[in-house]
């Protein structure tokens, strides 16, 4: 929200004709006065500004109706007023359409912008010759009053806005390291009330606010500096977390009575679970004790070896540099810690039956956050507006683990919503993708790929696609046995979007060489991609083409791509302007030249050479390079026949000569090689004739 950057209307080079100027003034005033759904923030400044502009509208309309000549000073004044009103319109529009939370944080700055505009309004009215204008006495009195008020106006900052902001910042900082010692909790009921008071009332409002904050962060990245961007990211984390938790009743099932029993008394909720206190708990079953600390586990998690440990203990073991399972000595193929919900449920039941205080999870585990009948008043939350990086990470951890818990134990409706939220959370940021995987989401998402409910399947495969962008997650997804399920979705998914995102997931996973081999060995994977190449939307065809390209980089997969019938489809797509994947199709065809089966299949086409000649003229730089690669390969294999077809086409030689002179480095080299080859063919033909 930076309306101060809107340039004033330049007036030094001349003025608009009087009629046009008045018409423009009346039009822009009406635009301002007709604005609807004005924001709660800056309410008084906005309403006062609109009231002033309404008064000016009456003046402009009377001047227009008089239809008489205007003194030069009045034209200058009207031009300045147009500039001020125009900037006021932009400012109000920004308050209305911009991020409410960021507007709250910028309360003083925005208020000052309104103040500056009113002062400029007063200065413009200084040169208005009211006595020389044909207006009624009422209008003259109103404008004189407006002028006096503008001259003596003072900066107004709404104390309610300041109170809202201060209370929100205090709540956001309530779980800082200092407050953690005193068991500080963020009060989501108060946060919800504050957000509601500034216009965020439902999940749609929260989603829109997140998008607005992301847009503001992008805008500020070039000028606002790291601190400003970090503060905005902090707000994004808060909104994301609160959306998942505050609207639990709307998005997830009501908590069961058993859930409400957990930590129902203050003594249980704030019990200090130190090692010494745990040693007093009698007869703890061995399976409930952490193999490392030998204490009753707080947050049981499963490592890659299949053994269960307390999260804090195994995390310290891994962070100290160990890459093996402490119990078995087996090397861990990945470092993800997957919550053991079954064991945790048994532990809770045992604690209740033996009157053992419930074990408090660490801040990184939110799957068992306390719930109460008053919409789960208090949640431990790690958003600290001073330490932005920590706040963002902790908020994502809480959100991710909360959602993974819902994936594990929820009904289909809950799983659908949780998968959707994880899909969105994994859409941006490598840290988000890493944290979601560490929360144990991947195995549950892989299981949901087999769901018959279209939206669950679609959200699950798209979440895995987003997670796979982080390289370490590629290994975790493959280790979870996801590839067969992804191929099933690609082959016969419930929606076309699910099939297309499955193709994109295969492309992402195949960025790792070992994955190219594994995927290529699945007999249905490549044919399913070729099927999407034929049946998909333009976006789906592109996803399939780039996935085939990645797989075909591995030589053994080239033959599979050819035998799956990809070549005729790829050549056909070269002529399909609507598909828009010419470059991708050319790249795959150029790769398939590397195997004899591919070269033979490509050589069977009678329409390919004329298409390639046209692409030498009209294709993209990359497309021209791949067209030259194909023509060179065909000439070397097809010899005189392909060369003769090239020589007979009047456009081929000029196009090759142009690329040899002005193309990219690769294009020049290939064009030169092709021209030399054609010269040899031509020379040999002349000798045979002679």
Which structural class should the secondary elements be placed in?
mainly alpha
Q: Which overall shape is indicated by the principal axes computed on the Cα atoms?
A: flat
User: Which segments are poorly predicted (pLDDT under 50) over 5 or more consecutive residues?
Assistant: 2-16, 175-185, 251-280, 361-388
Total domains, how many? 5
**Strand arrangement across the biggest beta sheet:** 3-2-4
* Biggest sheet details: 3 strands, antiparallel
Helix content: 55-70%
Supply the number of helical segments: 37
| Separation, N- and C-terminal Cα atoms | 80 Å
Average pLDDT works out at 78
The value of Rg in angstroms is 34 Å
Strand content: under 5%
**Care to count the β-strands?**
5
Please sum up the structure shown.
The protein is mainly α and 690 residues long. Helix content is 67%, strand content 2%.
Overview of the molecule:
By secondary structure, the chain is mostly helical. The protein has 5 domains: 18-160, no CATH class; 286-339, Herpes Virus-1, CATH 3.30.40; 392-522, Leucine-rich Repeat Variant, CATH 1.25.10.10; 528-605, no CATH class; 607-689, no CATH class. Helices cover 67% and strands 2% of the residues. It contains 37 helices and 5 strands. The strands form 2 sheets. It has a 3-stranded antiparallel sheet. Strands 1-5 form a two-stranded antiparallel sheet. A hairpin with a 5-residue loop joins strand 2 (300-302) and strand 3. Helix 22 (454-467) runs parallel beside helix 25, helix 24 (482-492) runs antiparallel to helix 25 (496-509) and helix 36 packs across helix 37 (665-689). It is flat and about 95 Å long. Mean pLDDT is 78; it is low at 2-16, 175-185, 251-280 and 361-388.
């Amino acid at each position: 929200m930076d309306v101060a950057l809107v340039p004033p209307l330049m007036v030094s080079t001349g003025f608009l004709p009087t009629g046009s100027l008045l018409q423009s003034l009346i039009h822009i005033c009406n635009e301002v006065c007709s604005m609807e759904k004005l924001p709660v923030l800056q309410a008084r400044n906005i309403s006062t500004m609109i009231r002033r502009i309404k008064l000016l509208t009456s003046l402009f309309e009377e001047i227009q109706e008089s239809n008489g000549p205007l003194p030069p000073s009045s034209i200058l004044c009207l031009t300045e007023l147009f500039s001020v009103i125009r900037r006021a319109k932009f400012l109000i529009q920004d308050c209305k359409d911009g991020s409410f939370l960021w507007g709250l944080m910028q309360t003083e700055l925005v208020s000052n912008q309104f103040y500056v505009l009113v002062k400029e309004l007063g200065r413009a009215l200084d040169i208005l010759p009211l006595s020389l204008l044909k207006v009624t006495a009422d209008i003259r009195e109103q404008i004189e009053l407006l002028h006096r008020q503008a001259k003596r106006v003072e900066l107004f900052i709404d104390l309610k806005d300041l109170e809202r902001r201060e209370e929100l910042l205090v709540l956001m900082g309530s779980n800082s390291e200092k407050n953690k010692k005193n068991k500080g909790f963020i009060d989501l009921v108060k946060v919800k009330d504050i957000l509601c008071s500034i216009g965020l009332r439902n999940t749609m409002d929260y989603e829109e606010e997140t998008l607005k904050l992301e847009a503001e962060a992008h805008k500020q990245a070039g000028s606002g500096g790291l601190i400003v961007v970090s503060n905005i990211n902090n707000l994004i984390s808060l909104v994301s977390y609160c959306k998942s938790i505050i609207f639990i009743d709307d998005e997830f099932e009501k908590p069961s009575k058993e859930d409400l029993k957990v930590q129902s008394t203050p003594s249980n909720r704030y019990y200090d679970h130190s090692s010494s206190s745990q040693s007093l708990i009698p007869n703890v079953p061995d399976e409930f004790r952490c193999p490392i600390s030998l204490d009753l586990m707080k947050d049981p998690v499963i490592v890659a070896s299949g053994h269960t440990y307390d999260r804090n203990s195994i995390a310290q073991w891994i962070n100290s540099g160990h890459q093996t399972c402490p119990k078995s000595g087996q090397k861990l193929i990945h470092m993800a810690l997957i919550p053991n919900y079954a064991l945790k449920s048994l532990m809770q039941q045992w604690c209740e039956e033996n009157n053992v205080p419930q074990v408090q999870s660490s801040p990184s585990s939110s799957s068992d956050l306390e719930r109460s009948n008053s919409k789960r008043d208090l949640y431990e939350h790690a958003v600290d507006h001073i330490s932005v990086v920590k706040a963002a990470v902790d908020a994502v951890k809480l959100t991710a683990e909360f959602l993974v818990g819902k994936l594990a134990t929820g009904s289909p409706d809950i799983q659908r919503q949780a998968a959707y939220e994880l899909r969105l959370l994994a859409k941006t940021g490598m840290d988000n993708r890493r944290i979601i995987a560490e929360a144990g989401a991947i195995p549950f998402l892989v299981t949901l790929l087999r769901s018959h409910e279209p939206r669950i399947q679609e959200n699950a495969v798209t979440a895995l696609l987003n997670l796979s962008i982080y390289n370490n997650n590629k290994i975790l997804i493959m280790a979870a046995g996801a590839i067969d399920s992804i191929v099933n979705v690609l082959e016969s998914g419930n929606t076309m979007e699910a099939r297309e995102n499955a193709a994109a997931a295969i492309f992402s996973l195949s960025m790792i060489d070992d994955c190219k081999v594994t995927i290529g060995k699945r007999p249905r994977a490549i044919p399913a991609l070729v099927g999407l190449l034929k049946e998909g939307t333009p976006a789906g065809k592109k996803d399939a083409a780039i996935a085939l390209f990645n797989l075909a980089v591995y030589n053994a997969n080239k033959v599979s791509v050819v035998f799956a019938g990809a070549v005729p489809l790829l050549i056909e797509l070269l002529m399909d302007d609507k598909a828009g994947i010419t470059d991708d199709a050319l790249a795959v065809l150029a790769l398939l030249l590397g195997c004899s089966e591919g070269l033979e299949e490509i050589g069977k086409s009678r329409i390919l050479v004329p298409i390639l000649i046209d692409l030498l003229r009209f294709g993209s730089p990359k497309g021209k390079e791949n067209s030259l690669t194909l023509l060179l390969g065909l000439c070397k294999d097809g010899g005189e026949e392909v060369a003769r077809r090239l020589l007979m086409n009047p456009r081929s030689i000029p196009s090759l000569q142009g690329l040899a002179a002005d193309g990219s480095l690769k294009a020049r080299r290939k064009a030169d090689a092709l021209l030399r080859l054609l010269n040899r063919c031509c020379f040999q033909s002349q000798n045979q004739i002679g």
